[in-house]
C-alpha cells in the first residue's frame, strides 16, 4: 500500500512504515492536485500537518482512500466527521508534540519578560552607538518565579505547559469547560516526582487573576480573547498563543499593547496565515514565530513513529 506524506514525515516514520510493508511518497503535491495524485498513484493513506487540507471534495474524489492522518493535534484542516461517515479512518498524534509546544510557550514567556525579541532587533542596529540607552530601555525585566500563569485549555499541551511552570515556581490556574480538574505530575531527572491537582475555574476569574496567560485550545468560531476580556485582565499582563490563530482578536490585542494594558504577546499562530497582518509583524512588543510549535526533531520523530504504528495496526 502507498502512503502520501504530503507535508513531510520524519525519517523514523518512513523507516517504520517501510518495515511494515508500505511505500512512502514524500513528494509535495499542490492542494488542487492532491485528489488526482491520490487516484493516479493508488494512494491508500494521506498524511498531513497543517498545510494540506483534506476536505469533502478530496474525500468524495478518492474512493480508495482508507486513512487520513494528521501529524499533530488540531484536526481543523480535515473534514473529520464526513471522512468517518465514508468509512475512512482519521488519526492524529495528540501526545507527540506536547513538550515541544510547551517549551516554545516558555521561549516566548522568557523573551517577553526580558525583552529579548526587541533587544535582538535593536542590538545589531544600535549596540555599538547606544549601548547605555538600550541597557536602560531593557532594564525593567520581570521574573516568572512566583507569578501566576493562567492556562486556557488544560489538555495534554496545557498540562505539559503547567508542569514547566510549576518547575519554575509559578502558581498555575486553569480554565477548561471539558476538564473540571486534573492531577499534574512533575517528574525530575532522578526519578522523584511531585503531583498537584489543578481545579478548573471560570475564564473570567482566570483573566482577572493571571499575570501571564497561555492558550491551548482548538480552532474556535469566535474569539476567546477580545476587547472585553482584555479589559478585565491585570495591567501589564503577558499573553502567549501557540495554539490556533483566530482565538485572539489581533486588532484589540494591538490596541492593548499600544496602551500598555498588555506588556507583551508571544504569537506562534495568527489570524491570517500565511500572511500575518503588518500591524502584528511590525509591533515591537510581540515575540513571533512562524507556527513552529511542534517543529522539533524529537517531536517529529515521535509523530512519525506514532502515525506509522497506528497505520500498521489499522491496515495490517
From TrEMBL:
What taxonomic lineage is listed for the species of origin? Bacteria, Pseudomonadati, Bacteroidota, Flavobacteriia, Flavobacteriales
Q: Which InterPro entries match?
A: D-iso_2-hydroxyacid_DH_PdxB, D-isomer_2_OHA_DH_cat_dom, D-isomer_DH_NAD-bd, NAD(P)-bd_dom_sf
What is the superkingdom listed in this entry's lineage?
Bacteria
Similarity-based family: Belongs to the D-isomer specific 2-hydroxyacid dehydrogenase family.
Q: Where is the D-isomer specific 2-hydroxyacid dehydrogenase catalytic domain?
A: 9-315
Q: Does the keyword NAD apply?
A: yes
- Ranges of residues in domain D-isomer specific 2-hydroxyacid dehydrogenase NAD-binding: 107-293
Q: Which Pfam families match?
A: 2-Hacid_dh, 2-Hacid_dh_C
- Quote the protein name from its UniProt record: D-2-hydroxyacid dehydrogenase
Record's keyword annotation contains Oxidoreductase:
yes
- Give the keywords, sorted: NAD, Oxidoreductase
Biological source species: Flavobacterium zhoui
Amino acid at each position: 500500500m502507498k502512503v502520501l506524506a504530503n507535508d513531510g514525515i520524519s525519517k523514523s516514520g518512513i523507516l517504520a512504515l517501510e518495515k511494515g510493508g508500505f511505500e512512502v511518497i514524500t513528494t509535495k503535491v499542490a492542494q488542487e492536485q492532491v485528489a488526482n495524485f491520490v487516484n493516479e498513484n493508488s494512494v491508500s493513506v494521506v498524511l498531513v500537518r497543517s498545510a494540506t487540507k483534506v476536505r469533502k471534495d478530496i474525500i468524495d474524489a478518492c474512493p480508495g482512500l482508507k486513512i487520513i492522518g494528521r501529524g499533530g493535534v488540531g484536526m481543523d484542516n480535515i473534514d473529520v466527521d464526513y471522512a468517518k461517515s465514508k468509512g475512512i479512518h482519521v488519526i492524529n498524534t495528540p501526545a507527540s508534540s506536547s513538550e515541544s509546544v510547551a517549551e516554545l510557550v516558555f521561549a516566548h514567556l522568557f523573551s517577553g519578560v526580558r525583552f529579548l525579541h526587541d533587544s535582538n532587533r535593536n542590538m545589531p542596529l544600535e549596540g555599538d552607538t547606544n549601548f547605555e540607552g538600550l541597557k536602560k530601555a531593557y532594564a525593567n525585566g520581570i521574573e516568572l518565579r512566583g507569578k501566576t500563569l493562567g492556562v486556557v485549555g488544560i489538555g495534554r499541551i496545557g498540562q505539559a505547559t503547567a508542569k514547566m511552570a510549576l518547575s519554575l515556581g509559578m502558581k498555575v490556574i486553569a480554565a477548561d469547560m471539558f476538564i473540571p480538574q486534573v492531577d499534574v505530575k512533575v517528574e525530575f531527572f532522578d526519578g522523584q516526582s511531585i503531583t498537584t491537582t489543578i481545579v478548573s475555574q471560570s475564564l473570567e476569574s482566570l483573566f482577572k487573576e493571571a499575570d501571564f496567560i497561555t492558550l491551548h485550545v482548538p480552532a474556535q468560531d469566535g474569539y476567546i480573547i477580545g476587547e472585553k476580556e482584555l479589559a478585565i485582565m491585570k495591567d501589564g499582563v503577558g499573553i502567549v498563543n501557540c495554539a490556533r490563530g483566530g482565538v485572539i482578536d489581533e486588532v484589540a490585542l494591538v490596541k492593548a499593547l499600544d496602551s500598555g494594558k498588555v506588556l507583551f504577546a508571544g504569537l506562534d499562530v495568527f489570524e491570517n496565515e500565511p500572511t500575518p497582518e503588518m500591524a502584528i509583524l511590525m509591533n515591537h512588543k510581540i515575540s513571533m514565530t512562524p507556527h513552529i510549535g511542534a517543529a522539533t526533531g524529537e517531536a517529529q520523530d515521535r509523530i512519525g513513529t506514532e502515525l506509522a504504528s497506528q497505520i500498521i495496526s489499522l491496515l495490517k
